[in-house]
Amino acid sequence: MQSKNWPSVLLLSAGLCGMSAAATADPVADALALFHDYEARSTRFDPTLADLYSDNAVIRSKRLDPRGGVRELSFSGSKWKLMIRAAMPIAKMRGDTNRFDELSARAAGDAVIITAKRHSELKGYTSPFRLVVRRDGSGSWKIVEEDTETQP
């Protein structure tokens, strides 16, 4: 009797596998998982945070001066990755952490746009934060754009 049930078991197993594949095919959920990994690595001052960025990423930062001036900075992903690895020990020494609030994410074509309010615990200000993430050639999610504002 058990031998007659194997096609049903096989079909059920295939169906469950298909359901789990569909569950992980949610790009917004996948992108948010990448963001939570970003947060965790950042909190641990883990230099492998740099690995979440594409070498071709575009990083833009507005530096807001207390006197009203704005300085716009832009870096390639490969340069940013080097900067992250160099800065992590210094950030750890200073206790330079961030908190993210008002997190949201939405699909935009083959990318996901993640926005949040970033609060600098060290400097005590809140600013807009935006990431664009996309799958790379190997299927891994990578940060391809970042827009931030900083203050001295």
The CATH class assignment is: Alpha Beta
From the alpha-carbon coordinates, what is the Rg to the nearest angstrom?
Answer: 20 Å
**Percent in helix:** 25-40%
- Element-by-element helix/strand order: HHEEHEEEE
Q: Name the quaternary structure.
A: single chain
Continuous helix count: 3
**N- to C-terminal distance:** 75 Å
CATH fold-level assignment: Nuclear Transport Factor 2, Chain: A
The unreliable regions are 6-12, 18-23
Count of DSSP E strands? Answer: 6
Approximate strand percentage? 35-45%
SSE class: alpha+beta
Adjacency order of strands in the biggest sheet: 2-1-6-5-4-3
Notes on the protein architecture:
- The structure is a single chain.
- With 152 residues, the chain is of the alpha+beta class.
- It has a single domain (26-150), classed as Roll (Nuclear Transport Factor 2, Chain: A).
- The chain is built from 3 helices and 6 strands; from the N terminus they run H-H-E-E-H-E-E-E-E.
- It has a 6-stranded mixed sheet with strand order 2-1-6-5-4-3.
- A hairpin with a 5-residue loop joins strand 1 (53-64) and strand 2.
- The protein is globular, with a radius of gyration of 20 Å.
